[in-house]
Specification:
GO terms for molecular function: transmembrane transporter activity. It holds the Pfam family MFS_1. It is a multi-pass membrane protein. This is Tartrate transporter. There is one protein chain. The protein has 444 residues and is mostly helical. It has one domain: Growth Hormone, Chain: A (Up-down Bundle), CATH 1.20.1250. The protein is built from 18 helices and no strands. Helix 7 runs antiparallel to helix 15. The chain is globular.
Length: 444
């Protein structure tokens, strides 16, 4: 009786056993589900941003200016914004398996078909269709994670999922640079055509695999034991009971909740930072004096590496301290500072990469933190619809930012004015979350 606790401390043996079982359960879930979703997001994001490398040659072949390219980038967000909420609500009804299958098949097919563009209007059409195809993937996965992981684990698991964007940048830069450098006029096709084809086809394959591999809910997971299912479901039910009694439970209630719009303002900082990082990094590095396409590819990967590493530490700190607001405003301020400094070092590639790294830290860490907040306030249909609304509203800035940057670049030959606007909006979005998310009801 006297030895009912561990001799190394005062934690009861059953608590230790329960903790070990819980960790083992979530490790199994992460390996089984997140590994595949991670791969899908790598392929998805690679196909979204490889246009930043293709445009180095694509603009000349299709006769497009920087402003026209910026418009094409922005058109992606029209279908994306319009279909975010319907797609997320549909995932709640039909499950992640069918949703991810649909998105990956359509996405991969359209991306592959971009290899055969011959006119600017086809570029505009393809970008619009890509946005419509992808709509609902990111908010859908955020909702899907809430079916498996309680809030106390969500920032870390979201940060691991976001690593896929970093991997897409780290792998995609050198890969895209290699294809552009070595596939010029192979079999009569231009290097950017090979880029779209070779990087789009794997997404189609992933879509087929998703239909047979993914599981919608813990209750349906044959690879979990009954005890593991009870553990996961119990943790989620306990979290649901702990939500505020006035938490919105339907879409209309979520639309009337001002916190939805505050969180959307915070989320908007992420795609706005991403406009610089994902669509103009190769051009910025080239403008700083680097001309070799393969070198540009490798250099473009560096900010993603820095942002990914920083995100893991910041997300862990946010979870351990159960604090979101100050973590969020800290990283958005860093991103705004990096953007401002970037306008001063346009002809120094090393300093430019350092500034892009600060933007990258804001991009990744802000995304990991902001999406831990909505499931805390929303439940039921409001969780699905509210997350879709937040994602859609946040992408409005992503629609305008590429147009502004492309137009400024065409008119002035410099990104400076547009990048300063990005810095301003990023800083304001961070302050909005700090002041608008009530301290007593921050994400747990």
């Amino acid at each position: 009786m006297a030895h009912s606790t561990l001799h190394s401390g005062d934690v009861p043996l059953p608590a230790v056993a329960d903790s070990a079982a819980e960790e083992a359960t979530y490790r199994k879930i992460t390996l089984r589900l997140m590994t595949f979703l991670f791969l899908c997001w790598v392929l998805n994001y690679l196909d979204r941003v490889n246009v930043s490398f293709a445009q180095l040659q694509l603009k000349h072949d299709l006769g497009m200016s920087d402003a026209a390219y910026g418009l094409g980038v922005s058109l992606f967000f029209i279908g994306y914004i319009l279909l975010e909420v319907p797609s997320t609500l549909l995932l709640r009804r039909i499950g992640a398996r069918k949703t991810v299958t649909r998105i990956m098949l359509l996405w991969g097919g359209i991306s592959t078909a971009m290899a055969f563009m011959t006119a600017p209007w086809q570029f505009y059409l393809a970008r619009t269709l890509l946005g419509a195809a992808e709509a609902g993937f990111w908010p859908g996965i955020i909702l899907y994670l809430s079916y498996w992981y309680p809030a106390k684990r969500r920032a870390r698991i979201t940060s691991r999922f976001l690593l896929a964007i970093a991997v897409a940048g780290i792998v995609g830069g050198p890969l895209s640079g290699y294809i552009l450098q070595n596939f010029m006029d192979v079999w009569g096709f231009r290097n950017w055509q090979w880029l779209f084809f070779l990087e789009g086809l794997p997404a189609v394959i992933a879509g087929v695999v998703a239909y047979f591999y993914l599981i919608d809910r813990p209750q349906e997971a044959a690879w979990l034991t009954d005890e593991q299912k009870r553990l996961v479901i119990g943790a989620l039910e306990e979290e649901s009971r702990s939500k505020p009694h006035d938490a919105p439970s339907n879409l209309l209630a979520a639309l009337r909740d001002p916190r939805v719009y505050v969180i959307a303002a915070g989320w908007a900082t992420v795609p706005i930072c991403g406009t610089i990082l994902n669509y103009w990094t190769p051009t910025i590095i080239k403008q700083a004096g680097v001309s070799n396409l393969l070198q540009i590819g490798f250099m473009s990967a560096l900010p993603y590496i820095v942002g990914a590493i920083a995100m893991l530490f910041i997300a862990r700190s946010s979870d351990l301290r159960l604090e979101r607001r100050w973590h969020f405003v800290s990283v958005t301020t860093a991103g705004a500072a990096g953007a401002v400094l970037l306008t001063l070092v346009t002809h120094n590639w090393l300093a430019a990469i350092g500034c892009l790294s600060l933007v990258s830290i804001s991009y990744f860490a802000a995304a990991a933190i902001i999406w831990t907040i909505p499931p805390t306030y929303l439940k039921g249909t409001a969780a699905a619809g509210g997350i879709g609304v937040i994602s859609s509203l946040g992408q409005v800035g992503a629609f305008f930012a590429p147009i502004v940057l492309g137009w400024v670049k065409s008119v002035s030959g410099s990104f400076s004015a547009g990048i300063l606007l990005v810095a301003l909006f990023t800083f304001v979005g961070g302050i909005a979350v700090l002041l608008g998310v009530p301290r007593e009801r921050r994400a747990p």
